Amino acid sequence: MRQGAEIILAHFPVLRITIFPDGREWIIGRLLPDNLTEKQKNGVSCAIAQPEFYRSLPSHKTGNYLSAWLAKTSVQSSDIQEAILVDTAGNWLETSTGNLWGWRDGRWWTPPLSAGILPGIVRSQLINWLQKHQQAVQEQAWTADLVEGFEAIAYTNSVVQIIPIHTVHQPAGSLQYNPHHPSFKQIRRLFVA
Fold first, then answer.
1. What are the residues whose beta carbons fall under 8 Å from the beta carbon of 113, sequence distance 6 or more?
2. Which of 10, 87, 101, 133 is 20 to 30 A from 74, alpha carbon to alpha carbon?
3. Fold of 33-192
4. Pairing, β 82-86 against β 44-48
5. How far apart are the C-alpha atoms of 170 and 177, rounded to whole Å?
6. β-pair type (175-176, 82-86)
7. Do residues 179 and 42 lie in contact, with contact meaning Cβ atoms separated by under 8 Å?
8. Rounded to whole angstroms, how far apart are CA atoms 26 and 182?
9. What pLDDT digit, counting tens, does each position of 156-189 carry?
């Protein structure tokens, strides 16, 4: 496995390694997203996807990203880079590529696993890191009322780390958030530690 990973790593900065129950392995390489540094600095624009684009078996990393890919391509345009997946009640769950985080009332908020989101390696590390540093993390369903009160929101994953979201386009109108909110400095410390 190490030999295969080193061969692919010569061509790609990101590797995804899957080990199957029968011992076989699957190693694929990926490039970093375009304009990653710019997105990390100034944020991205998102749109709410249709509820039909839900994650199947969210408690398992199946490798089936079809619904997330379809959600993202259904909203993607020159000014929208990411989709926010929602449940049938319209509660925000996660983006097509990462876990959601919001800042309000002096704390971080994230949707609960019970809502049907992927657990996320960075999500669990970030919750543990914040709690270790005596920072409150509220796991709660992201209803329309809750998201309207956020000062800042972002998404995280193990490749992009944290990407602020400055605009969310939705049928009832766009919501604006601060992509330069000081709370992001706190989370970025996790990735340099």
1. 58, 59, 119, 139
2. 101
3. D-amino Acid Aminotransferase; Chain A, domain 2 (3.20.10)
4. parallel
5. 14
6. unpaired
7. yes
8. 40
9. 999 999 999 999 999 889 999 999 999 999 889 8
